[in-house]
Amino acid sequence: MHNGYHYPRAYATALKSRNNFERFVAEYADVVMRHLKSYYAIARGSRVSADQFEAFCQTIGAFCHPAPRDIEQLFELGTVERVFLVHELTFDAIELATRLHTQLDAAGIDLRLKSEARITSVDDIGVDLNVSGRQERARYVFNCTYAELEGVGVELKTRIKKELTEIVLIAPPPQILGRGFTVMDGPFFSIIPFPASGLHTLSHVRYTPHEALANLDGAALRPVRTNGIAMLRDSARYMPCLARAQIVESMFEIKAVLVRNEDDDARPILVERSEKGGRIFSVLGAKIDNVYELRDFLRSQVWN
Amino acid sequence: MLSSVTAIVIVRERPVDSEMIRRLLTALTALFVDVETVIVANGVSVDQSLTLKNLLERLPDCTILFLREEVHDDVARLLGVDHAISDYVLFATPVQAEVDAIPAMIAALREGNDLVIGEGKGGVIVTRSWILAGLFWLFRRVYWLIAGRPYEAQPPHFRILSRAAALYIATHGDGEVLVRARTFGSGFPAAIVPIGASPPLPARGTPTRMAVAKALRLILTGSALPLRFASYLGSFGGIMSALYAIYVLLIYLFKTDVEPGWTTLSLQSAGMMFLLSLQFLFLSEYLIQILSSSPPANRRHLVARESRSTLSGRSSRLNLVDGEGRFHIGAPQRFVSPHTK
C-alpha cells in the first residue's frame, strides 16, 4: 500500500491513495504488517528532486523523514540524492483472502471462483450471463476482471494496455530483511517484503514489463524467459548488498493500464458504464485500497 | 487535456493582482486536468503578507512561500520549481497578454517543446540607473567570456517548461543562469511564442548589494576559468622560484664578491616561494575538482513559512474516470467515511 508516496507527479492519485491507506489500515489492521520499515530513495536523474519529493509529502500530509546514516550507507555513493524513511506498509495476502472469504460467507454471497462468465444478452431491466454453463440473470453486472475486461463480452471505449510483467521473489541479504526500499522516480526498482512467502519481491520499472499489447484481442502474452538476473544486477548498482541476494522464483502476471495515463503518474480507477442498457459496469483498478473509492462511487449512484 | 501544471508567481513590491491570477488559473483549468499555484513572497511587506493570506483563502490548490529574506527573483523562481509537483511548470507575471497567450503556449508545448517562451512588449520592466545598467552590461560580457554562454538580460517572466526541463534547471549548478536561458541545449527543444503587448509595469531592480554579490558569485562559479587562472599563477610562481634558485647558484659559483649570507638567504626564500607556489597550485586544482562534483546548494532553508490553501479543486472528486476519461465527482458528504477526513 503506497500511502501516496508512489505518485509524486499526480497529486490527486497521491492524495486518494493516502486517504485510502488510512482507511485500509484501520479496517484491516489484523492483516497489515505494522513493523515494516520503508524507505524511499530519490535517485540521481530521477523525475523528481529530493526537495520536490519532500515538499510533495508535506502537501499530502505523509510522514517523510531523512533516513538514518546506516540506511544511507546501503546505497552506492552518488547513485541517490537522498533517502527518506516513510510510512508505507504491506499486508499478508493469504490472511486477507481468508478474512474476505469469511466476510463473503457471512454476507451470504455466492462466490464462484475458477468459473468462466460470458454476457449473452442485455435489456433495459437486466443482464443475462452464462456462468460455467449455467444461465444466470442479474440486474447489474460489475465486470472486475482486470486484464480480461473485454473477455466477458463487453466492448470498452477506453484503450487498455496489457503488459506481461515479472516480479522476482528474492531471499534478501540481512541488511534488507524486513525492510522495504523503493528507488524513485524513473527506471528504477522496488524491494518489498512478501509475507506470504517469507521472501522479498523485486520489481523493476525497466525489466518487470516483458511485452505489451494495446489491443485486447491480440495474441496471448506468455512468459518465455526471466529478467530476474537483469533486475538484480541493475538494482545492485544502487544497493551493492543486493549482489548477495538469491533469486528464488519469478511470478508472472498480466498487468492492465489505461493508455491515456501510461506516461504520467496518475492511476485513476476506470469505471466504464456500458452504453447499451447501462447495466454493466467495467471496473479497472490496480490497487487494493481502490475499493473505498469505488464504494463512494457506488453510493453516489441511483440504483433501480 | 494535459495532465497537470504548476503556475509560479513571484510577488515583490507590486500589489498582488488577484483578479489576474484568477483569470490565469481559469485559462489553465480549461487545458489541464490539475492546476496548482505556487506564489513566492520575496521580501514582501506586512500589508502584502496580509493580502496574500486573504488570497490563499480564495484560491484553491495554492501554496505561498514566504521567504526569510529577499533573494534574487531567479532564486525565488527556482524555489517555486522545488515546490512544484506537476508535469509542467509555468512562470507568469501574470498580465492579461499572458493569459490570452496561454492556448498558443500550450499548442507549442504539445508540439514536443520542453521550453516555450512567451515574448511581447511591455509587462514588467526593470528600472536601473545608468551606472547599474553599465555594470550589468559589463557583467554579462565578462560572464560570456568566462563561462562561454550568455546570461540573458530579460528575466523569465512568462515561460512554460516540461517537468524534465524544470528539473534540469532546479538541480543544475547553474540553475540561476539556466532559469532565464532561451535554450537548454539539444536535449530540450525550445520555442518562442510572440504574445500581445502589455502596459509597462515598472519594477525596481535587484538591490545593488545583492546584484553585485550574485555577479561575483556567478563569475567565480560559472566556470573553472578564474580558479584555473589562480592555478596557472601558482605554476608560474613555482617556475620563477626555481629559476631564481638556479640564478642564485650561478652567482655563487661564478662571482667572487658575493656578500656572506646572501646565497643562503636567497636560496631559502626561493625554496619557500617554490613550496608555497606548489601548495597554491595543488589547492586550486583540488578546489576545482571539489566544486565541479558538489551538488547545488539546497534552497529550502530560504523559506520562512509555507502556507497552503484549504480549498482544493481535487478534493471533491474521486480518483475515478469514466469511459471518456472524465473524473467523477465524489459521493455526497453523508456517504463519505469519517476516515477520509
Fold and architecture overview:
The complex is a heterodimer of chains A (304) and B (341). Chain A is 22% helix and 32% strand. Chain A contains six helices and 17 strands. Chain B is α/β, with parallel strands linked by helices and 341 residues long. Chain B folds into two domains: 2-223 and 311-335, Alpha-Beta Complex (Spore Coat Polysaccharide Biosynthesis Protein SpsA, Chain A); 225-293. The chains are: A alpha+beta (304), B alpha/beta (341). At the A-B interface, helix 1, helix 2, strand 16 and helix 6 of A face strand 2, helix 6, strand 11 and strand 12 of B. Strand 16 (269-273) of chain A pairs parallel with strand 11 of chain B, so a sheet runs across the interface.
Summarize the structure in short.
The complex is a heterodimer of chains A (about 300) and B (about 350). By secondary structure, chain A is of the alpha+beta class. Chain A contains six helices and 17 strands.
Uncertain spans of chain B: 331-341
CATH fold naming of the largest domain in chain B: Spore Coat Polysaccharide Biosynthesis Protein SpsA, Chain A
Structural class of chain A: alpha+beta
Overall number of strands of chain A? 17
Termini gap of chain B: 30 Å
Overall, the morphology of chain A is: globular
Count of helical regions of chain B: 10
List strands and helices in order, with pairings:
The complex is a heterodimer of chains A (304) and B (341).
Chain A: H1 11-27, E1 32-33, E2 37-43, H2 50-60, E3 64-66, H3 69-72, E4 80-86, E5 90-91, H4 93-106, E6 117-122, E7 127-131, E8 134-138, E9 141-143, E10 160-171, E11 179-184, E12 189-194, E13 199-204, E14 209-213, H5 228-238, E15 246-258, E16 269-273, E17 280-284, H6 290-300
Parallel strand pairs in A: 2-11, 9-17
Antiparallel strand pairs in A: 1-5, 2-4, 3-4, 6-7, 7-8, 10-13, 10-14, 10-15, 11-12, 12-13, 16-17
Chain B: E1 2-11, H1 18-29, E2 32-41, H2 46-58, E3 62-67, H3 73-82, E4 88-92, H4 96-110, E5 115-119, E6 123-127, H5 130-147, E7 159-162, H6 163-171, H7 175-178, E8 190-194, E9 200-204, H8 208-221, H9 225-254, H10 262-293, E10 303-308, E11 317-321, E12 327-329
Parallel strand pairs in B: 1-2, 1-4, 2-3, 5-8, 6-9
Antiparallel strand pairs in B: 3-10, 4-7, 5-7, 11-12
Helix pairs in contact in B: 1-4, 3-6, 5-8, 9-10
